[in-house]
Amino acid sequence: MGELPAPPGPFRPGFWRSPIRGPWLTSVFGLVLLVGLPVLFVTGALSYAAYNPDLGALNDQTPDKGPLGFYLFDWPTHPAWLYRLTQGVHVTLGVILVPVLLAKLWSVFPKLFAWPPVRSVAHALERLSLLMLVGGAGFEFVTGILNIQLHYVFPGSFYTLHFYGAWVFIAAFGVHVVLKTGAMVRALRSRPLMRELRTGLAATRPEPPDGTGLVAVAPAAPTTSRRGALALVGGGSLALFVVTAGQSLGGGLRSTALLAPHNRDPGEGPNGFQVNKTAASVGITAQLVGPDWRLELHGAAEPSVLTREQLLALPQWSARLPIACVEGWSTPDQHWSGLRLADLAALAGLPGAAAVLVESVQPPGPYTSVLLRGNQIHDPRSLLALRVNGAELSLDHGYPARIIVPANPGVNNTKWVGRLTFRT
Questions:
Q1: Are 404 and 321 spatial neighbours (Cβ–Cβ below 8 Å)?
Q2: 86: burial class by Cβ within 10 Å (0-12, 13-18, 19+)?
Q3: Is 264 exposed, middle or buried (0-12, 13-18, 19+ CB in 10 A)?
Q4: pTM of the predicted model, to two decimals?
């Protein structure tokens, strides 16, 4: 194949003419990704651990993960804002790295059309790792951004696809780092960053040919400098930070969070903070949560069936906790009040309960039931909440009763609770 002439178009070396492409610019983008992508992977892995998948099938959408779950641990409840931080970093960083990723792909695009496409077994393995790297990165970023917008068009569960896709990507990323770190360091040392940032369009020149295939054989006149390219990418990332980070940081930036899921704010008042799923969207009707609603309590003692009035008559406790969701958005701390899960465990005859099965009255669907760990039960801030901010829970916020646990992913703070089953 190498003896055949290269096909026309992008396979010909003279097709690519940008004078700023080269090892240095590619390495600058690569260095940013070298720092950012491992943080994305680690925070994503922590998000997976926060769902407590090793508790059982209800929490685990990847039962065939095998050794990929080697790191799982009991997700803590301290500090209460832990999941808000880790998932906020994961989503915000993922969004702001999009321009950097696209710029990196642009900088190496000519190599995708190198001729011959395969020169040896080693070269074939390198290109295969690149396919996994580029494909894995594209898959993870696209599915992640669609999930942020609650646009579920995946051929299966987002959590399953994103989990396995992350491991494919990080494996290819590790291979790529081993193969390219030396070349990246040499390229970065070849041109001081500050000198490039002082070099304008008139003084921009192509890098010397080095056999990498990145430097144009017949470069055109520059239309932007490397400084301009870095400013464009950096400005894009800064703009995305402004329209994303507010959904996690709150404060004045919340109004600028244009990429946060929309139409999820119930309005003003004690219940005027964001929800993920409304009662109507999951089929909650007045019959399910009306006067006939009861909480079933199971454990070592005889099962109990309690009305909401009976629950309100029991000792009430309060906690200030946020809600933080996998899509990256979170609420400020809300003042919740209700019954401590530890007290309910004692009422069920299992004061030392190691787990609790929480079941919602909503029609069957994803996350209508969840398992919580013993440390989550026994944290005094873990509540079966009946009120929020001094008012009754609204229907969208889980009336007549919902779970609220510190540092718990929002979807595991089950709403419209109908049964609690404590286990040893």
A1: yes
A2: buried
A3: middle
A4: 0.93
